[in-house]
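Q: what does this look like with histidyl-adenosine monophosphate bound?
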Amino acid sequence: MNKKVKFQTPTGMHDILPEDQFLYEKIWALVDDVAKFYGFGKIMTPIVEDAALYERGTGGTTDIVEKQMYTLKTKGDDVLALRPEFTPGIVRSYIQHGMIALPQPIKLYTYGPLFRYEHPQAGRFRQFHQVDFEVFGEQSAALDAQIIQIFYIILKELKFSHLIIEVNSIGDNQCRPYYKKMLSNYLRPRQTSLCADCRRRFRENPLRTLDCKEEKCQRIRSQAPQFIDHLCEECKNHFKALLEFLDETDLPYHLDPYLVRGLDYYTKTVFEIFSEKTMEQTKEKGEVLQRNALVGGGRYDGLVRLLGGKDVPASGAAAGVERIVGLLREMQLVPKSEPTAEIFLAQLGDLSKKKSLKLLEDFRKAKIQVAESLGRDSLRTQLARADKLKVAYTLILGQKEVLDGTIVIRKMDTGEQDTVKLANVVEEVKKRIKK
Ligand code: HAM
């Protein structure tokens, strides 16, 4: 009885503490900025959706749906899932709100938490955040290139220097069945040499075997027919156009003929962005292909129709925010934290404490950052704190000043002090710090 319980965050999930918030906020602000410039509107969809949306959209045989979805039954017997990715929810919203009737393309972006029941490890969590961009109603490879460019810009702005973009084309309904057949014919006599997962993948969707990280499967893969050699004319031209756009933008891409991505909806373009740093690290650990992508995406021309809408081409991608934050920390690219205080407010006695609350709000409205120690009474302790914070000025509000309606402004480097009217103090500070 009464045993002390020690609650912890659930496995694979973590708190984001105040000292880490600025990194996330910096990323959100940058993403908002880039999105605005490129004409993307922000969308927010529910954290839970019908589980069937992902079964159909993400794909019933994908790892995400088969193994990683958090599903729940509501009291009303609806089967819902915590969203494991954004794309199907955004497509649902596009259809539900009749966005097809608006001038196309429709460009949408979002960010927020997602849930996948993964085996937690470095860069792989059960709750994580993504930044996601989607474009609807545009077939041109120019839009695929723009999505790649946008994510590249975001990573560059965050000061990542060695980025590698891997691209491939996985064809469409015309050429994929033919390639799948060729791949099956190649794999069938080699089935017994594949890993257990790939033997299952071979039956469900042989393309997935190309993505396997097991060495024995990679050995078999290295002799397999390549998709890009068997694309239909339309897909070939689309891929050629994409590479030309990428050449024009000077993006450092690399062709990976085995990149297939682990979701069912892709057609034609697929891509991932890596940081060279992750590549080096995985090499050190001897896991040559166990790399963590920062960004993954591609074109998905059949998904809107599959989820009940019309034939609308679409393209998009998502970045893993925890992976970005983790690498920024490792590479010591952590940008400067919180705004630093410009002045310090020291108070002495109950009366001045009461006045301080209102005064702080006046400074907030004037956008002047003030530090304080409202819980402290000693002037010495407060001045020591002001010194440590390296503020230029400290305001001293004692009992006498409150009664006189004044306040002292102390210049910290010289120790000079002025007494000014309390009612004018914001203006007086503004003059001194030249705001
Ligand atoms: P995804 O490749 O499953 O694609 O995820 C995109 C990115 O999210 C990954 O590259 C990775 O950085 C991050 N990520 C995925 N799973 C985890 C995890 N368990 N822990 C931490 N980070 C993770 C999608 O989700 C597609 N919806 C992208 C897309 C948008 N395609 C078209 N539009």
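The longest strand covers residues 106-115. The domain at 18-175+231-330 is CATH 3.30.930.10 (BirA Bifunctional Protein; domain 2).
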